[in-house]
Amino acid sequence: MKKRIFFMIGGLLLLSQTLFAQTEAAPVLNSGNTAWILAATMLVMLMTLPGLAFFYGGMVRRKNVLSVMMQCVVLTAVITIEWIVYGYTAVFGTSFQGGWLGEIVGGMDKFFLCGIDKDALTSGNIPEVLFALFQCKFAVITPALIVGAFAERIKFSGFLLFSVLWAIFVYNPMAHWVWGGGWMQQMGAIDFAGGTVVHINAGISALVMAIMLGKRKGYGTSMMIPHNIPFVVLGTALLWLGWFGFNAGSGLGADGLAANAFLVTHLATSVAATTWMILEWIINKKPTVIGICTGAVAGLVAITPAAGTVDAMGSLFIGLFSAIVCYTFVAYVKPKLKYDDSLDAFGVHGVGGFVGAILTGVFATQFITGDGGQQGALYGDWHQLGVQVVVNIAAIVFSAVMTFVLFKIVDKTAGLRVSDQQEEIGLDISQHGEIGYGDNE
What we know:
mainly alpha, Ammonium transporter fold, globular
């Protein structure tokens, strides 16, 4: 009798331990993380609309302001549809994981968010539908950055077709390679919030588009000055604000990593803006509003890949170097190469993104990543610097080749360049039948 009681008690204890262990292992929604990523998602949304719309819109001539804003609005809509239907599964699908195919492409198991209900959780114990929406905002802003390269001369229908194809065949593969378990992630590449996926990818495509589309009429001989600099300041402020969601939200948690990403993002941006201003002041004798705004964006771009791995000292140097390199490129290299990147999309995003991605391999520190985390050459890991160089050169080649191919396809079908007459009267009227200010002089 005593043995039976002993075995019953033992069995009950074992059962209770098993049930307790199962309960402990089951993921539970983290309401703090969820609330923060909801806010971060809204902040990243602000970067495209209205941030980038005002930033780019203010820098073009007044006859083209609506065309640039329209491009930002339409990309917010159509890329969202593409992402929910196909993009998310192409990047984060799991059906091909475990083999070489999974390092190249995502699976199709999450097509149209299939099988993801409101209770499904992902990293940080946040709803997967929220993670999908957060990532959607990255997919939206990346092709929108390219708008700055071909502003004032692109046909709206051709632009729209090119942008959707670019999202499918350039952005999605790159995002999978870096963030979705692809070969770049397997190599150990560091890209916390999109230096490679967003800025190098968009910046290189911007350069290819600017060269292949050709210069604007009168480029180099006529004055093409920004029509509304206060718009540029407003856009910069919104981008700066939204970038806190972009970078600090990428850790998917309301924790010390997010706080550090917030800090280094703000510091690098402040250093880059100040450095650009000083360079202009010394060289051109006057600091300009456009200059300090451009410097701020260069700093935001450069700190993006590093925000999860560098400390304050690293962010200071990244801000400093990004401003110096981007300023040199925009002020001296671009005029010598004589291509027409209307709003310096390549000079800021492509060059700044590459500077930030490489310097991540220098300044990443285990003080931030923790013991066993990745660190850079400054702290003894030269291998990480090599990985950053190889991965980002590969990204440049892929983006350039694919953009060239897509340009040729779209140009032969829908067409990409407006006529001389349409360019002369402005894209607001010729492409949209509207004017921004009641007159178009």
